[in-house]
Structures are given as structure tokens and as C-alpha cells.
Amino acid sequence: MKYKLIALFIFNMIVIQNGFSQSDSLLGKKAMIFSFQGFNLGGGIGGKYQIGTNTAIRLQLFFSYSNSEYKDLDLSDPQSSNNKSNSYSFSPKIGIEEHIYSDEKVSLYYGGQLGVNQNYSRSRYQYPSHSTDRSEVQTSIIGGIFFGVEYWISKNISFAGEQSISVYSSVRENYSSFNVQSSASSLLLNVYF
Q1: Which position among 113, 115, 118, 129 has the lowest Cβ density within 10 Å, counted as fewest Cβ atoms?
Q2: With a threshold of 0.85, does the pTM exceed it?
């Protein structure tokens, strides 16, 4: 029974509400944003608020986790080792998006965002005679631009594909850097209410 109710809800959102137009005013509407960045356990959640017919402010929190292990420990070889590392990061960002073209189903947009990234990593190196642990915290200031295409599947639900170009300024113990990079493409699910 539970699955029938879920199927009925999805059918209602997609098929029955087909009498909408994207050109209907979104002014004052809010949306939950779910962002997916590849298959590396990275993504985010956030929200946006339409402050104008074509303009929205958005606030998002991105997170990621990675874990790797390399096993090559041979007790008779002093150069062999087992290496294990994991890291996680979170990044709050605030941005503004401007829609430049819209029809009933598709909207093209661009925007900019600012944020801070905190990355925590820990590594363990195990040798035949000893082991070493290392922990590190890296803080980055992020600024960037993005562009995307939003496709409306119903009056309240849309998918968007987005690409961003970011500038990072990073600081960690005894090291700082400045980078420009194109990040992974993102798939966004927007649920308006």
C-alpha cells in the first residue's frame, strides 16, 4: 500500500500538473536544492528564494568524504608500507542566480557564489619498524561563477545540470596556495513550495 501511495504522489506531481507554465511568476517562492556531484559521496543540500522574476538567492552546504588504503607491507622489506587515509570536508556557500532565458519547460541561468571550505584529513603510514600518523586541516576561501540549464518536470519540481568555475585560496599549516579550477558538474533537484 505504501508503494502505491508513493507512485500516486509521483504521478500527480509529474502528469496531472501539466497545465503549468514556467513563465508563471516564481517571485517569492522558495525551493529546497539537492545537489549531486558524481559518484564520490559528494554533494549538498540547500535552499533558494526568488527575489525577482528571474533572480534567486541561494544558500547551500556541500560535503564530501573519501577513504583510501594501500597495502604493500612486507616485514622483510624496510621500504614497504601500508598507507591508509581518509578525509571529509564541508563547505557553506551563498550565491545569486539570474535566469536569462525561459520557456514552458527549460530555463538557462548563470550566477556567482562565495563560500568557505573546511577539509579535514588523516593519514596513517605503517612501516615494518614503526608507524606514523598525520592529521591536517585546510581552510579555503572560494569564489566562483556557474552556469546551468533547469528543466521543469512539473510546476514544483525541476532538474538542473550545472557547471562551475572556481577560484580557491587555501591555507594550511606551513602552506598556502591559489588555484583556478573547473569543478565537477552537478545535478540539482529543486523542489519548490
Answers
A1: 129
A2: no
